[in-house]
């Protein structure tokens, strides 16, 4: 479970990147964070992963304070970045083994590693291929495999479908559904309203550091999410 | 976890082009230059052995203790192959004497090089192990380090790694360990190849102390390249860009390897100029005049002073340094009483000469010490000092040798005193009998006859029990001399890594 409690971040240059943001993502839920550039989506991710400290408020992963006990909190989360860049000179298997061991999974057999990579849709020939020869779509899939092999209760994804072709993006969403079925609490930041509508259980709409709205799937399932998004943005601007 | 990160970094480093090129270059240079340096050492050793043998041959001809003037030689250091230091630029022999001109105390600093130039300050030695490591290995260390952090940030792998339950300290320690392991590969190969080539040379024989010092040199080499790596790591942790880290690293490299060693020489000369050699020579000339004046005065007081003065003045060559045959009764009479005076007189003036020379040498040494002190700003200079100290090719070893020579002079004097009843025995000056001396004094015709008779029974002295100068360097001495620079090098590493750590704690990994 991922929990944000009055999370606020003001950068040294005075920019308020997060303004008392609170929400909770439950196990088996995909929460998509929507917003324009500078809305505070990536800042949220950076605080959750303890890359930066919040000005006030707190956030928790599986009950562990992300900034007071970051190493404990990180045991329970996997991270998939916008552009998964792994070690180009290593093969996919070597990359996967390295990150599995960082996550505490030691002594895994090649077969186990290969099974995880196959499960995310990587073709057989890619398993022993060097990463420098991977396409972006393949790297994103391997990123999911890396997140999967750690098998944490929470997964944070920062713009994971950015730059993916439609087919790769769809395959990626299939993987997310599987993760949801396995009870993972997933936070995904995205610009892509179309993909968010396809996959999200809830969407959070951010504008200039504020969480201006949270909509459940029932509210946008049969509606135009883009219209909801624009309406909320305009409302926030009026406030 | 640290080991896991180190293993990953190590493997990635091994796969880089720069690592392969750097390793090959280092090994090839070692393979080219070690045989050259080993051959150079063989020739110098051969020359040393020849000179020692010549000296022994001359000693076997000595027929009076007054002309016992052994020459001592400094044996070339076998580890000069690793670090030539100042060995070839300093004097390597000294002549010990008591009865002739008292210049024996001038040894050997002044004879080391041109008078106007401080020979200790030259910075570019031959292309030995030291220089290969200082240039090639340090450049490789920098190239491995500059992108250790910055590249991972640029690629995004750093943020992914730090999303795992590992601390930044673990990441940085892993990178440090990886750097050490990576650079140890070419360093170890270079040392092994160098040693194999060295041992294949018939002139090279390494003892236990040599092996211990080679091991210390290996450790010092690793510490040096690790120091450069740590500087690269610091720049990589300070900047968000690997290209900026590389530029800063190259700037450091040029300053450390080229600018600081040059600047130390310039600054030392600027702030501690050496005593003028002309002024020193003038002082020496003044003492020589005083010496001659006093000598004549004192000789006049001795029995048969006139005769002695005429034939055995202070610059008298006699029958050559290695043979003396005095059949002049006046001289013999003089020497029975005057030898002790001559020796103590010469020793007294030798010390006066030495005081002047010493001032000059001290000014050179002060300049050198200042240069070394300034040089400690650079890990390259620290490495230089450490390697030279361990190889026995540094100034301290040379000074130790000259001190040993002075002590040896006292040993030889004590030996002569012991053999000549404290210089009172006629053996100090001649083996002629009383009868031969009387015959010699009758005139030229008889002098020839007396000389021939004396030559028949005048045999070379048995000098087998004359103590020989032995000089060697143990691991303890080497370590003692290298300790300060080695400690500063270690501190430099700790400081750079601590700064890297602080920078990395504040590093924006996003």
Number of helices of chain B: 16
How many structural domains in the coordinates of chain B? 2
Largest sheet of chain B: 2 strands, antiparallel
Within the largest sheet of chain B, what's the order of strands?
1-2
Catalogue the unreliable spans of chain A.
Answer: none
Helicity range of the residues of chain B? 55-70%
CA-based gyration radius of chain A: 18 Å
| Average predicted confidence as pLDDT of chain B | 81
What would the principal axes of the Cα set say about the shape of chain B? elongated
What would you note in describing this structure?
The complex is a heterodimer of chains A (239) and B (510). Chain A is of the alpha/beta class. Chain A is 38% helix and 26% strand. Chain B folds into two domains: 2-37 and 126-272 and 476-505; 44-124 and 274-472, no CATH class. A two-stranded antiparallel ribbon of chain B has the order 1-2. Residues 100-124 and 305-323 of chain B have low confidence and may be disordered. The interface between A and B is medium-sized, with 30 and 22 residues.
Core attributes:
heterodimer; A: 239 residues; alpha/beta; Rossmann fold; 2 domains; six-stranded mixed β-sheet; four-stranded antiparallel β-sheet; 9 helices; globular; B: 510 residues; mainly alpha; two-stranded antiparallel ribbon
Detail the topology: elements first, then pairings:
The complex is a heterodimer of chains A (about 240) and B (about 500).
Chain A (H helix, E strand, L loop, with lengths): L1 E9 L5 E10 L4 E6 L5 H8 L7 E6 L2 E2 L4 H5 L2 E4 L11 H11 L7 H10 L16 H15 L3 E5 L7 H16 L3 E6 L2 H7 L2 E6 L2 E7 H4 L4 H14 L1
Parallel strand pairs in A: 3-8, 3-9, 6-7, 7-8
Antiparallel strand pairs in A: 1-2, 1-4, 4-5, 9-10
Helix pairs in contact in A: 3-5, 4-5, 5-6
Chain B lengths: L1 H13 L2 H43 L11 E3 L19 E3 L33 H17 L4 H6 L1 H6 L5 H32 L8 H31 L3 H30 L5 H25 L3 H7 L17 H47 L3 H13 L3 H25 L14 H8 L2 H14 L17 H31 L5
Antiparallel strand pairs in B: 1-2
